[in-house]
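S.,

Sequence below, as promised.
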Amino acid sequence: MSLLTVDAITVAYGRSKVVNDVSIEVPAGSIVCLMGRNGVGKTTTLNAIVGLLPLVSGAIRFNGERIERKAPHKRIEGGIGYVPQGHQVFPRLTTEENLRVVLERNRSMDPAAYDEALDLFPALATMLGRPAGLLSGGQAKQLAIARALLGRPELLILDEPTEGIQPSIIGEIEDAIVGLHATTGVSILLVEQYVEFALRLAEHYVVMEDGSVIDAGKTGDGDLERFSDLVTV
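The prediction came back faster than expected:
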């Protein structure tokens, strides 16, 4: 059964179509990687899924319900967590305040999720009093993921979680994603340029080029060299 179904969506900026007739399935309990070169429409597709961009046509279903007309906060409340590209944290707030502010703005969230997020990223527990703007890139990414997990989403969307991060931290993020998936069964839609990382994590893949899907399938059936050719600039 598919948790998320993106059905032939088209997204445009003005008169320019950026995403054209894209379809993606995320089966419940799975990890799916969306791959492609820079500028092919991957982030635009994610922004459409979470409601930051309107559709020209097509449909988006989550848990069988059409959501393309719902506001972004309603999609988040409905079970979608989103970690955008870059380090989306409040730099002047401490690590702890970055987490607490999410809980305070969403009274329906379980406060126990705070401890669960720190268990997943134990390094953050040693930096609770540090301003987020002083965290390293990898630490800020961990904080951004931890914030998204406070709502205990059914679907976690990650846009380039390894971008600009040192190799040792990439390993920590990979371990955290694997652990999260194993313990909670959360479904994950991952946009990633680091092919080896993506294929180690994901069970299914989708490749985009020029705003359209050009290939999709199970990662176990794929060819690493071919994926690299499709993704590398």
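The two ends are 34 Å apart (CA to CA).

Coffee later?
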